[in-house]
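Blinded run. Sample ID left blank on purpose so nobody reads anything into the name before looking at the predicted structure. Input follows.
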Amino acid sequence: MTPSPVNVTVTGAAGQIGYALLFRIASGAMLGDVPVRLRLLEVPQAVAAAEGTAMELADSAFPLLAGVDVFDTPDAAFAGAQVALLVGARPRTSGMERADLLAANAGIFGPQGRAIGEHAADDIRVLVVGNPANTNAAIAAAHAPDVPRERFTAMTRLDHNRALAQLAAKLEVGTGRLARMSIWGNHSSTQVPDPSRVLLDGEPVGFDPAWVSDHFVPTVANRGAAIIQARGASSAASAASSAIDHVRDWVQGTRDGDWVSVALPSAGQYGVPDGLVSSFPAVSVDGEWQVVEGLELSDGVRRALDASVAELTAERDAVRALGISI
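Blinded prediction complete.
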């Protein structure tokens, strides 16, 4: 008997990341060999573009695609959603103050969180892609108090994948031979790429500390800016691919002997204050993320993580100063 379709809601569906994401979801790359129904959320002025994308999805004749619906209100878009990818966000523009950016995104992710809490399925899983992703995830979670907070995650898988690519190039191997890369902290330039436990074919591999600090860390942390400078637009296809990876591993489980980087609400691990959405190394077991605990952090990683946590704390406090629940 054919299983019921999984309802997947994607916000900002008419944008570049959404466009790169939707066809891969429909192909089965994210959830495997199960039917999906896509629910696309856009602002009213972009609904026509989303409807055009829905036409393309239909014309692609994906065997697993059970249907596509387009909405311009969160309540309708998240009704019955089992997976939600929150891609649409307010980007920072020239002259925009940080508080203005946080307030604008709170006006997006607060209502979306409320709609998820009131209308999504009981087994909802949420991935926030739109930046500032960590704080946006915290805002959404705060507005859905009846949804377990660990169901709200933010994407540092793109940083994780960027790091793997740099290490693979350094070692002249394929990324599939590497495991146990870690990204700590915020999805920002303060993130902490940590290759100290990386395995090659299951064996530890060391990297020159000078190369790590002078080349690897800044390359990974500033990769997004480098891509904007090179192509004149932000990462789209790679962000979509990483979102697919994040949800696929969440649902289907991580590789044996490996972990991936996930931003999720802290329970106090590694000195990160409770409730801050921070990136940790994590494994997925039975469809639930579990932070890898008991790892010893070097002094350098500890200092860098503290700085990233300070940035997350400042973002949280700035949102609270606006009178917004988080």
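Unblinding after everyone has recorded impressions. The radius of gyration is 19 Å.
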